[in-house]
Amino acid sequence: MIITLKKGAPQQEIDKIIHEFESKGLAVSMIQGTDYNVFGVVGDTTIIDDRIVSANKYVENVTRIAAPYKKANRLFHPEDTVVNCGGVKIGGQEKIVVMGGPCSVETKENLMTIAQGVKEAGGRMLRGGAYKPRTSPYAFQGLGKEGIDYLCAARKEFGLPIVSELMSIDKVDEFEEHVDLVQIGARNMQNFDLLKAVGKMTKPVLLKRGLSNTIEEWLMSAEYIMAGGNENVILCERGIRTFEKYTRNTLDLSVVPIIKNRSHLPIVIDPSHATGDWRLVESMALAAIAAGADGLIVEVHNDPEAAWSDGAQSLTIEHFKTLVEKGKKIAQVVGREI
Ligand code: PEP
Ligand code: MN
């Protein structure tokens, strides 16, 4: 961290700042310039809040050199993390994992039909929302526990581990018991109490990027979960808000190489919420594989036109099969397998 102090800063003030850092185990060195004094602070600067340092009236500028996240940082953990989700491994050089399933769990019958289709197509995990974060309070809110029960029944029948969204702390025990991969949705990426709660869980977490959050904010949310003791975090890019209206969101695929460089955590792409349009899902899924993603999470429905939520972005089972077939070929080109 580099801190620039105005030249006129009294010695007493300088000593106070140096003492502040040294008392936290950091080393400080100073360069005296003609107009400014520049301090280099080295050590574990993740514990320093630069906004507080900036509050000092003699401080002109604070520049962070090291990232503020530690546990999620590849610098301190060079090997790729591989996360085990109910027996399916995601990350590193493991096979690319394709997860498929409906936006919302609807009836038991149609979930079974979709799960069977996902399995036969080569999907290795089943997704489905039982607790839904809907923009409108009048829209379908999910089946709740009944939906989790149907997911468990589908897992038993087809051997697919299940991923579902946890929206509130009071359902932590339910998810700990039944769900293989706990999804934190985009809208809850900065629900810090929820992040702390999943940080205490033993189940892995799929952390979606917030609608308007930077990569650093996203990694800091992963840090919250990891700091609580749960280091099994998978990041999921699902598109961000931009001015563009042709798509529901804008898929930021550049996060794949950026995350690979900055973090050891696996990265999964959700081309369904990223585009909002089934016509665009296949090409974005293939592009994600080409970019180096460790997995895909795709909305699939046996009858998208009749879906209770997100039908417009859901693939038919047939289309999902085609996607996986094409994906296998792209994976081969980049030295991976599905
Ligand atoms: C979902 O996966 O169904 C969902 C609501 O996703 P997101 O949080 O990315 O909008
Ligand atoms: Mn959805």
Structure report:
The chain has two domains: about 1-65, Phospho-2-dehydro-3-deoxyheptonate aldolase, domain 1 (Alpha-Beta Plaits); about 75-335, Aldolase class I (TIM Barrel), CATH 3.20.20.70. It has helices at about 10-20, 50-55, 110-120, 145-160, 170-180, 190-200, 215-225, 255-260, 270-275, 280-290, 315-335, and strands at about 1-5, 25-30, 35-40, 60-65, 85, 90, 95-100, 125, 160-165, 180-185, 205-210, 235, 265-270, 295-300. Helix 8 links the parallel strand 12 (about 235) and strand 13 (about 265-270). Helix 6 packs across helix 7 (about 215-225) and helix 10 (about 280-290) packs parallel to helix 11 (about 315-335). The protein starts with a strand and ends in a 5-residue tail after the last helix. It has an eight-stranded parallel beta barrel with strand order 7-8-9-10-11-12-13-14, surrounded by five helices. Strands 2-3-1-4 form a four-stranded antiparallel β-sheet. It is an alpha/beta fold. Phosphoenolpyruvate binds near residues 133, 186, 208, 238 and 270.
